[in-house]
Amino acid sequence: MATNLDIRFKWLILVALIGWVLYLIGPALVPFVIAALFAYLFNPVVEKLERRGIGRPLGVTLVFLLLTLILVGIVLVLIPLMEKQVSKFIEQLPRMIEWAQTVAAPWLTQTFGISLDTFDSQGMVDMLQGHWKEAGGFATKLIAGVSKSGFAIVAWLLNLVIVPVAAFYLLRDWNIVVERMHALVPRSIEPTFMRLTRESDKTLGGFLRGQLSVMIILGTLYGIGLWAVGISVGPLIGMIAGLISFVPYLGAIVGVGMGVIAALVQYQDSFHVLLVAIVFVVGQLLEGYVLVPKLVGDKIGLHPVAVMFAILAGGELFGFVGVLLALPIAAVVMVLLRYAYERYTQSEMYQEAHIESVIVVGEPNAPNESAIIVVSSAPAPAPDSSANP
User: Fold this and answer.
1) What is the rounded average pLDDT of the residues 56-81?
2) Are 260 and 271 in contact (CB under 8 A)?
3) What span, in angstroms and rounded, lies between the C-alpha atoms of 285 and 227?
4) Backbone conformation region of residue 368, classed left if phi is above 0, alpha if psi is from -120 to 50, else beta
C-alpha cells in the first residue's frame, strides 16, 4: 500500500512533467491561451444570458456578434485615427530630435555631465520616416515575400483564425470543461481544491475584468485630456499610457515623458508642460481613489514591485505567453500563499507548546455533586527554587 509520501512524490513528478511539456510547446499555446482568457472573461456574460432564458449556444453567438461589431467599429474609427496620430508623430520627430540636440542635450551636459554626441539621431529619423513611407506598400511586399517566409505568414494567419474559433467552442462548452477537470481531482483533496478554486476564480476574474476596464478608461481619459490641452499627438500618447498602465506607475511615467516632450516641441513653453502634468495628475488621482477601488479593489493583493517582478519573470521564462499569464498566475499564487499561511499558523511548527494545567473544583466522587474542570492553555508555572524539598 502506497504511503502518503509516495503519493505526494508521484504528484510532484506528474506536475513537473506537465510543466516541462508546457514549456516545450509554449509558442504553440499562444492562441489557445488567448482564447481561454477570452472565454474565461466573457463566461459570466453568457451565464447572465442563460439566467434570462437564453440558451448557451445562442448566448455565445450573441456575445460574439456584439464583440465583432465593436471590433469593426474600432477598425473603422480608431485605426485611421491612430494612423493619423502616428503620421503626425513621424512628422514632428525631426523637431523633437532638434529640440533634444539644441535644448535638452546642452542642459544635460551642463547639469549632469551627460553627453548625447554618440546618439545617431538623424539616422533614426531617416529610418523611421523611410519605413513609414513604405507602409503603404506593405501588402505588395507581403505578397512578394510569401515565397521567402511563407510558413511564418501562414502560421500567423492560422493563429489569427484559431483564436476566435477556439474561444467560441471553449465559451460554449465552458461548464463541460470545468466539470471534467473537476472529475480528475483526487477525492482526498477535492474539498480543499474546490475552496481554493472558488477563491482563485473570485480573485482572478475580478482583477482581470477590473484591470481591463481601468486600462481602457485611463487610455480614453489621457487621450481626451491631452487633445483638449492642444497636444496634436495626445490621443496616441494617451492610448499608449493606458495600455501599459497594468504595470504600476509605468503608464503615467511614459505618458508624462512623451507628453512633456510633445508639448515642448509643439509649443516651446512651460504652460503646456504644466497642462500635460495636470492631465496625468488628475488621471492618477482618479485611478488611485476611484477606478482601482471601484473596479479592481484588493482583488490580487500584490505589491506593485511584485507585479513588476511577475511580469518580467513571466516574459523571461515563457516569452509572450509568460507576459499574458504573469498576473493571472500571480493572482492564483496569492490565494495559495494565503492558504499556506493559514495552515502554517495552525500548525505545531508555529504554535508554542503549552502545558495544560487542570484545576478540579469540588469533589467529583461525592454523590449528587458535580465537578468543575478548568483547562488552561497557559504554560505551567516554573517551580520555586527557594522552596524546601
Assistant:
1) 86
2) no
3) 19
4) left
- On the CB side of 320, CA atoms within 13 Å amount to 9
Amino acid at 106: P
Report helix, strand or coil for 359. strand
- Beta bridge partners, 358, equal 375
Question: What size, in residues, is the chain?
Answer: 389
Cell of 69: 461589431
Do the Cβ atoms of 96 and 265 come closer than 8 Å? yes
Give the whole-angstrom CA distance, residue 334 versus residue 301.
7
Contact in structure between 40 and 201 (CB atoms under 8 Å): no
Give the position of cell 456578434. 65
Alpha helix ranges (H) inside the chain: 4-24, 26-51, 56-73, 79-99, 105-112, 121-133, 138-144, 146-172, 174-183, 190-228, 234-243, 250-267, 270-286, 304-345
DSSP character at residue 136:
G
- Helix H or strand E encompassing 374: strand 372-376
Please report, for the chain, the start and end positions of each structural domain, with discontinuous segments joined by +.
Answer: 34-80+94-184
Are the beta carbons of 240 and 258 closer than 8 angstroms?
A: yes
Q: CA 102, 104, 109, 111 torsion: positive or negative? A: positive
3 has pLDDT over 80: no
Question: pTM for the full model?
Answer: 0.63
Please report the pLDDT score of residue 115 as a whole number.
Answer: 64
Q: In this predicted structure, what is the pLDDT of residue 247?
A: 77
